[in-house]
Write a structure and sequence with these properties.
alpha/beta, Rossmann fold, Arc Repressor Mutant, subunit A, 2 domains, five-stranded parallel β-sheet, 8 helices, binds calcium ion
Length: 230
């Protein structure tokens, strides 16, 4: 994922660039609002509101005016009003300084998940995704199996949504714990297995989620949920 970091302060930007690189992000960094508006397209923008040449709010507004790129605002303390205005202007999330790298990574992943176009309706955030007989609606956080609404817990839904981002791809246990739970999750990893088991049961499709022992989980291609296709 390519991240555009708009931050004039080297003491903040440099560790962030190094840290995000460790998580596999490619970071392009600019120091001014004007440079942000002319930068190459990225997958996400991290936007500091305190910039030397422009109000970060105006940068947010202009970025949003031209594209649907996800924007996470970075605010200093005492910028509550700017934060609210920024969210109204279409920023997807915000972080207050100081913040930890893992918190930032979790926010980036969460925003990327929320804003990812679902298959079947390109460009429509929150559109429905259909996997065999399972229909996932990220906008309403509802899951239907054979057109019947299935009651999932928030974590069960999040887990399914992450696995469904790329059906067939293997997601490691640590990645799932980091994204669905939180980066500071140090509890028993058994929790993950319990949720996978509940998902399999509730979806009525034990084979939908495949266990790769010692590695992680993935959705089986096509999401076959067995007999009973209406
Ligand atoms: Ca600044």
């Amino acid at each position: 994922m390519d991240v555009l970091l708009v931050e004039d302060d080297d003491t903040i930007a440099e560790p962030l660039i190094a840290g995000l690189a460790r998580y596999g992000f490619t970071v392009e960094r600019v120091r001014t609002g004007r440079a942000a508006l002319t930068a190459a397209p990225a997958d996400m923008v991290l936007l500091d509101l305190g910039l030397p040449d422009m109000d970060g709010i105006d940068v947010c507004r202009q970025l949003r005016g031209g594209s649907a790129i996800p924007i996470i605002m970075i605010t200093a303390r005492g910028e509550e009003i700017e934060r609210v205005v920024g969210l109204e202007l279409g920023a997807d999330d915000y972080l207050s300084k100081p913040f930890g790298l893992r918190e930032l990574v979790a926010r980036i992943r969460a925003v990327a998940r929320r804003t990812a176009p679902a298959s079947g309706a390109p460009g429509q955030p929150g559109a429905e995704q259909v996997l065999g007989n399972v229909r996932i609606d990220r906008r309403t956080r509802q899951v239907h199996v054979h057109k019947v609404l299935v009651a999932l817990s928030p974590k069960e839904f999040d887990l399914l949504a992450v696995l469904a981002e790329d059906p067939g791809a293997v997601y490691s246990r640590q990645h799932l714990l980091d994204t669905v739970w939180d980066p500071h999750y140090f509890g028993p990893t058994k929790t993950l297995d319990v949720h996978v088991a509940a998902l399999r049961r509730k979806l009525g499709a034990p084979a939908l989620i495949e266990t790769l022992r010692g590695v992680g989980f993935r959705l089986t291609a096509g999401g076959d949920t067995g007999p009973g296709v209406p």
